[in-house]
Amino acid sequence: MITENIIVKDWRKIDFSFGLIYPNIYKLGMSSYTIRLLYFLINSYENIACERIFLPENIRFPASKDYSSRNNIRSLENKILPNEFDIIGFSLHFENDFKNILWILEKSDIPFTSRERLILAKDDKEPAPIIIGGGPVVTSNPLPLSKIFDMFFIGDSEPNFDLFFKIFHDFKKNKIDFKELLEKAAKISGIFVPSLNNMVERGILKDLNKSPIPIFQLISKTSNIFENNFFIEINRGCPFQCKFCISSFHNFPFRNRSYENILRVIEQGVKYSNFDTISLMGSCVSSHPKFKDICKFIISKEKRLTIPSIRVEHLTSDIIDILEKGDVKTITIAPEAGTEDLRYELGKRISNDKIYSVLAQIKESKIKNVKLYFLIGLPNEKDENINDIIDLIKNFSNIGFDTNSLRVNINPFIPKLNTPYEKEVDFYLKENSNKFNKYYHKLTQELKKIPSIKIKFINFKEIVKNARLQTLFSLGDQNISELLINYYLNGANFGSLRKVQKELNFSMNNYLIKIKDCYSPWRI
Fold first, then answer.
1. 473 domain residue, yes or no
2. Mean pLDDT of the chain
3. What is the three-class DSSP state of 131?
């Protein structure tokens, strides 16, 4: 694997080191703009060496039962063990990666809990790294990880890096007490220290132009998706505030990068980096007032263009034509529901006729593939609404798409703290335990008959089990940390989850009823 723009520093000339961890495999981590941004930002400090660490493939849980020598983890740059870094920072995007955090810590001989690491520091033994976390899932709710991590960056991290690194430099240079370090960090408004339970405000970078886009991006010459793409974040947050979406509520206000800044970055990126494709990043890239002009500029540089999911109402004939010229192979849209009533309730006021009309226009273009995202288990959803999804997709197929051109993803709705739907847990209560499987079975039986449909939810029983676990971690309080650790130590599978709940006398059903009755474990 040949990777361009790796930053390798001389450890003899730095003040401290930072292990940047994405707790999943390399190809997923490198598809994250956040990893590229943090790698660039932290390495922009001359006195800090930041190196990347990813989860090995095909691991076994727990790490103590994984005897494969291939799964000894080291940083990509200098082959440093995780426990040799001064700081380990996890970028956390999905609750189902929580078990991977513990695997990495155990494999690295780092104690699981902040309390154990504090005892080590007091005993003047070889100190463990300080463990910090950030990302959307901890901004939504860090409490299930509260016994594991020393501190969390809540919200945007850019405004607080300078303050934190100055405090940490003082800690290293003057050998101040670890507890004093935590107390100083807790005074930074966007940092939460669980052991101190300090009040915290979400960090907000008001001007997106002050978040520098890496000009020299990590680009790998492999066949993996996104590794040869140049990422440009053009906006942050979302102006539409769909009720289930953490980006709308944890990333507000909606902010656009300036058009001039974007063009300058594209010019510099083309000049200094060798890549094929420019990927526009943001929760709602098509809401940028200069979206059309940005796409045209990329095309003028003879680069391919990719975009994430796009709002249906923004897919005009002009935009479809531009995306076609940008060699976009697939357009992704998210109808979410089969009926307009449910969709409008979510905050997406888009009619079925509008979606149908847009798909018909795409069919007439050179863009032959469409990804469709739906949610099931929504508030007020009834059995007949599953038929509505089936009918809507069948209508789409009648437009005449080629075989497997409509890629249908149907995911369970996951309630998130600090969103309007945080109490909507009905589908995860015991009395409704079979609904998801019943719905998925029906959807699979009906949709697999249609040649133009490619079903992307093959192992639906596994999807449902993961959704239940994700919901528990999404809404959990401090006590979930103990359950998480024991779940991991027992193999991190669904059988171990049942076993641990019994041993700890914990009922997921009772906990979710408590949430439904307005228990709120975490408020920003």
1. no
2. 94
3. strand
